[in-house]
Amino acid sequence: MLGKLIKYDLKSMNRFLIILHAFLLLIAVLLRVFVTSRIQLQTDEGSLLFAFAILAYVLAITGIAFGTAIVIAVRFYKNLFSDEGYLTWTLPVTPGTHLLAKTISGSIWSFIDNVLVFAALYIGIATPDFLRLFESQKEDLMTELGFVGKYADITAGQLLAIFLLMGLLSCICNVVIYYASIVLGQLFPSHRVVGAVACYFAITTLGSVASFLFTGIAQLSSGNLNFRFIVNFGAEGAAGTGMSLTFVEYISQVLVISLGASLLFSAVLYIISYQLMKKKIDLN
Amino acid sequence: MSGEMNPILECRNLSKKYNHQTYALNDLSLSLGRGQIVGLLGPNGSGKTTLIKLINGLLIPSGGSVLIDGMAPGVDTKKLISYLPERSYLDDSMKVKDIIHYFTDFYENFHADKAYEMLADLEISPEARMRTLSKGTKEKVQLILVMSREAKLYILDEPIGGVDPAARDYILHTILSNYSEDATILLSTHLIHDIENVLDHVLFLQNGRLVLNASVDDIRMEQQKSVDILFREVFRC
């Protein structure tokens, strides 16, 4: 039953999201052909155009990521808590299977969105000129960012795998938050949608505060209070020496800690959603 | 007939309170036997839909319990019940044939060939998208889906409310010719006159309470009245 539920969820979301992401890739190709490939990076000429291209990207990516989140949340709400819920809840399926199916299908599309956003960025920015410039500056840049010491041998493939894994985990966490907000919103019978939106803001605020505190406490306990860009101090005495951290060390530490906090927070929200769906929610 | 040894439906002191104050259903106890058509009758707000939603597990009871074939609402009871709600519950963007596929995927006791046969009878194209159909046609599609299942308990909430009299006849004919003898149909409606002749048993609900639980034959024999007339007397405003 789980597989069938996921199949129908994906089918329902595909209609909107394939079009939305085809549009994203189209924008990326158009910007590449008409803007970024014509920019001479070695000169200042075209820097305004480049700034425009970046702005257009940011807007398109933000809009499409927001649209994806809306489609995922609306599918969950509509399928379970609108009139369609009269069919969904009378299928011979447990509330737990419904929640799991929706979490998997929502996370799949959220992850596809993430990957395609990166793909669009790559299509748009990685012109031959840009890649040549990057290659020529690569070593300096990597050193300045702190890819030295134990981080020196990291390959592009490994970095990509780490990004993808972290992206996947954060997609799952986000989807769990959307669903928990909608389920909690059902506890306000006459204002279910407004309740869900209010719960979303409350949950994300709470999550940010918790993550901030969690990260702070973890750093305090490990004794690492700040980081420094080694660009200011030269490469010598970089990773792993003294109290201060390189940029890469700091970012990876913060990412791991905050992702851990998010996973813990999402697990709690998932359990709350499940219990409410099983024991508390009345269909309107 | 209503309280035999192995009932298909049993409610024990069943209550449902909304917003912690109003009782939509209050201390309702009843038992329904198999192989009969039961009319669930009562004015608006009497608790008919609340009772139906409780049986289908769409509401959590505030008190008491409901058992279907001896089981509390759950995966196993949902396999036994074929439910037609009083609203349109199908995804408007789906085609009729996709919905038939959906039912085939999820209900083992769904007969797609039977559904296609009834669609052909009513000249409804399986290729039609739900959103292009009229309200009455949508209701017919829903009824066809519900009656194409080989269920033990059919629960039909206002199945003839939104359609014209000719379609009403077809729907009643569809209901009567598509259920097996040991199955039970619980049918809620305001239009008593139209369905009186097919009912074996009636339940009258008023303000969330059961005020009558009797066989149609008893009503006719003992009270010398039709169900329609009795209803008008009991619920006189």
UniProtKB/TrEMBL annotation, chain A:
Keywords: Membrane, Transmembrane, Transmembrane helix
Superkingdom of the source species: Bacteria
Transmembrane segments: 16-35, 47-77, 108-131, 159-181, 193-217, 254-272
Name of the featured protein: Uncharacterized protein
